[in-house]
């Protein structure tokens, strides 16, 4: 029997992101600025297809061609005429493709597209069921013949050349018995003499540890050209000099493949305080790189929600008072907290593999430590993403379900604020720069866990991502989540968000209850065959659940049971009377350990701690492998979002909105690229074909 984990129901939740009022209030110039930034984000977002799996781009093109010719309603009629029931219409894709107008018009092309992706689309071979490196899964950040040792060697090479991995992919082949690696930079141009060799992007051929490395440009070149062209158009409508300089540097980054240019653009972005239209774009989050160093393309455009932003501004102004409350010595905190922007935004465009509830960026450690960062909370995402129906709430008792539904939204708003601002925004990294200078008093600072002097730190070009690699993303999310749990106990924090007295205690209770329930739900994202986690945040929440279960004294209880339907079930409960004592103490101790290990670049200690709590087994007081099966059996499919489009009409911009349904979602995508659909699709297939000479990780049976 095929694992139900890999099935999605036909009635999956789909919601429209409402930004009508926010967009209407923009001036014509601001609307044009938002439009061209959105176009840039959407074109760049197509690179995610090439960063995910060998078949992703072909699947996208197949569906675009299918629905460009006939919208869902027409295809439904075609399916009915072909004898397919409504259920079969949604499930029998091949029959639908063969009956479609797109197939009738171009049968050989559509059949070739189907053949290029259909086997992998439906494959449930172990390696093809999840993202991973080597034998653990599929990734296109690396060619399929790369393993962890190749990733580690490439990181050493990149460090030696002072190159970031954020906008790269790695391809390996053999030549004359020697391993040869191509580090491919994302850029619109393929050559640029002034930046090659020992210039800004180090393009060229190098011998390194008896291997050959070639640094080249041109990955996603057609897409990066579109990104840069639209950034240049947006620049004509920028509100100030910081925005203009920011867009110039971003454009230079995507044109030439320079992360240094993107960092420079990020510096101008930080200086652009309180813009009406907020945005960020680039190779940002490294969650889906199995090695944790390469960024997935992401671009968002959003409009400030002034009322909600006032609360976050109050939190920012209290940050310097709240930071000393965190459970590590002051030497482990930044020398100076740079007050960031913290705004609530209504998303107009978010291009990438998913939409988060909040963001803390940029991710460049050197900028965050010394120059600052920004925080955003995505208000219209929060409004629809976390709405919950009581009958779909799993693993809680009936009394908890009522209070959970009432207070989940307000409690999550508090958690997001603390997680982004004081979670990701806190903590110091101990660094010795290339000149040998330390940013801490080496002779005086002691490790609070051991009482001994600091013996490890970050050296030269080492970063948090490059040192902690495969665990860096989840570890940092866990640290930020713990900060949120810890500081939400502070009455001043709760009052900032308008919560006092009994209401404040309900917010605390539901925030902690939501975290332990999320830890249990996180088991959905653990793959038992490869003993690996597929989602950084959910791994982090499972770790926190383990920490709070370990605290004992009845703080958290987790019991297996049988549901009313006769199937395996579970019940998780939290003793609210022990949150401020047992719970606070457990998080305080764990959070201090996380920060000390991070500050001191203690990779060995950090891995031992984090991988220990991340382990999923059938031993101990809880059979988590068995509980995983229960979670999978009762999981709810992740909600999908429909986003609006914009189009220029004369001197103004029109907002085109769609219903929150599968039809609305499909139409939003076909219309998004309608003006140059054939060109975009041809470029995608060409880019995908370039990777074909390199092993993709497919087995012989699946080719």
UniProtKB/TrEMBL annotation:
Record bears the keyword Protease: yes
Q: Give the residues annotated as active site.
A: 420
User: What EC number(s) does the entry state?
Assistant: 3.4.14.4
Q: Where Zn(2+) is bound, by residue? A: 419, 424, 477
List the keywords (alphabetical).
Acetylation, Aminopeptidase, Cytoplasm, Hydrolase, Metal-binding, Metalloprotease, Protease, Zinc
Quick one: signal sequence residues?
A: none
Which catalytic reaction applies to this protein?
Release of an N-terminal dipeptide from a peptide comprising four or more residues, with broad specificity. Also acts on dipeptidyl 2-naphthylamides
**GO BP: any one term:** proteolysis
Cellular component terms per the entry's GO annotation: cytoplasm
Question: Which co-factors does it depend on?
Answer: Zn(2+)
Which Pfam families would you find in this protein's record? Peptidase_M49
Give compartment(s): Cytoplasm
Q: State which residue ranges cross the membrane.
A: none
Q: Which GO terms describe its molecular function?
A: aminopeptidase activity; dipeptidyl-peptidase activity; metalloexopeptidase activity; zinc ion binding
Entry note: cofactor? Binds 1 zinc ion per subunit.
UniProt key word Cytoplasm: yes
Protein family according to the UniProt entry: Belongs to the peptidase M49 family.
Protein name, per record: Dipeptidyl peptidase 3
Provenance organism: Oncorhynchus tshawytscha
Q: What is the lineage of its organism?
A: Eukaryota, Metazoa, Chordata, Craniata, Vertebrata
């Amino acid at each position: 029997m095929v694992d139900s984990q890999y099935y999605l129901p036909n009635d999956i939740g789909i919601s429209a992101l409402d930004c009508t009022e926010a967009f209407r209030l923009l001036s014509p110039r601001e609307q044009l600025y938002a439009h061209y930034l959105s176009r840039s984000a959407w074109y760049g977002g197509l690179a995610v297809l090439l960063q995910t799996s060998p078949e992703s781009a072909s699947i996208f093109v197949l569906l675009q061609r299918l629905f460009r010719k006939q919208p869902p309603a027409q295809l439904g009629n075609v399916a009915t005429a072909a004898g397919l029931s409504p259920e079969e219409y949604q499930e029998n894709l091949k029959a639908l493709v063969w009956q479609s107008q797109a197939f009738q018009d171009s049968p050989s092309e559509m059949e070739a597209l189907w053949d290029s992706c259909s086997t992998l689309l439906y494959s449930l071979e172990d390696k093809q069921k999840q993202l991973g490196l080597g034998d653990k899964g599929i990734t296109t950040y690396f060619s399929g013949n790369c393993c962890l040792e190749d990733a580690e060697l490439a990181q050493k090479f990149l460090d030696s050349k002072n190159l970031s991995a954020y906008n790269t992919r790695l391809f390996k082949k053999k030549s004359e018995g020697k391993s040869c690696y191509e580090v491919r930079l994302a850029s619109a141009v393929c050559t640029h003499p002034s930046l090659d060799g020992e210039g800004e992007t180090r393009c060229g051929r190098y011998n390194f540890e008896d291997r050959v490395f070639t640094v080249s440009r041109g990955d996603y070149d057609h897409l990066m050209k579109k990104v840069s062209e639209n950034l240049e158009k947006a620049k004509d409508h920028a509100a100030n000099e910081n925005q203009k300089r920011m867009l110039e540097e971003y454009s230079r980054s995507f044109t030439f493949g320079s992360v240094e240019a993107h960092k420079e653009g990020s510096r101008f972005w930080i200086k652009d305080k309180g813009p009406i239209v907020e945005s960020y774009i680039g190779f940002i989050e490294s969650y889906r790189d199995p090695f944790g160093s390469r960024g997935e393309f992401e671009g968002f455009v959003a409009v400030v929600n002034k009322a909600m932003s006032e609360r976050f501004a109050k939190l920012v102004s209290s940050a310097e008072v709240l930071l000393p409350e965190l459970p590590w010595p002051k030497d482990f905190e930044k020398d100076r907290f740079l007050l960031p922007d913290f705004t609530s935004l209504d998303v107009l465009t978010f291009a990438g593999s998913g939409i988060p509830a909040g963001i803390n960026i940029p991710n460049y450690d050197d900028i965050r430590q010394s120059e600052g960062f920004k925080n955003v909370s995505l208000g219209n995402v929060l409004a629809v993403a976390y709405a919950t129906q009581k009958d779909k709430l799993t693993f809680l008792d009936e009394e908890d379900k009522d209070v959970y539904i009432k207070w989940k939204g307000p409690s999550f708003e508090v958690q997001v604020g603390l997680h982004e601002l004081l979670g990701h925004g806190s903590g110091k990294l101990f660094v010795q720069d290339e000149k040998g200078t330390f940013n801490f008093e080496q002779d005086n600072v002691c490790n609070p866990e051991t009482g001994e002097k600091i013996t490890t730190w970050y050296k030269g070009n080492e970063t948090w991502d490059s040192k902690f690699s495969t665990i860096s993303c989840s570890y940092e999310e866990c640290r930020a989540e713990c900060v949120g749990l810890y500081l939400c106990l502070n009455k001043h924090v709760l009052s900032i968000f308008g919560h006092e007295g009994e209401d404040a205690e309900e917010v605390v209770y539901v925030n902690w209850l939501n975290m332990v329930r999320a830890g249990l739900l996180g088991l959905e994202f653990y793959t038992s065959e490869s003993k690996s986690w597929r989602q950084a945040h959910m791994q982090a929440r499972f770790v926190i659940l383990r920490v709070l279960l370990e605290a004992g004294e009845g703080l958290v209880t987790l019991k297996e049971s049988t549901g009313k339907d006769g199937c395996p079930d579970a019940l998780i409960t939290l003793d609210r009377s022990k949150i401020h004592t047992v719970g606070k103490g457990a998080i305080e101790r764990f959070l201090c350990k996380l920060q000390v290990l991070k500050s001191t670049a203690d990779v060995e200690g950090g891995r031992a701690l984090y991988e220990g709590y991340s382990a999923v087994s059938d031993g101990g007081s809880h059979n988590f492998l068995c509980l995983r099966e229960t979670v999978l059996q009762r999981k709810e499919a992740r909600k999908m979002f429909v986003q609006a489009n914009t189009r220029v009409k004369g001197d103004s911009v029109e907002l085109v909105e769609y219903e929150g349904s599968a039809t609305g979602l499909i139409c939003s995508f076909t219309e998004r690229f309608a003006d140059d659909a054939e060109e975009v699709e041809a470029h995608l297939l060409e880019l995908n074909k370039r990777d074909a000479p390199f092993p993709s990780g497919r087995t012989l049976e699946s080719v």
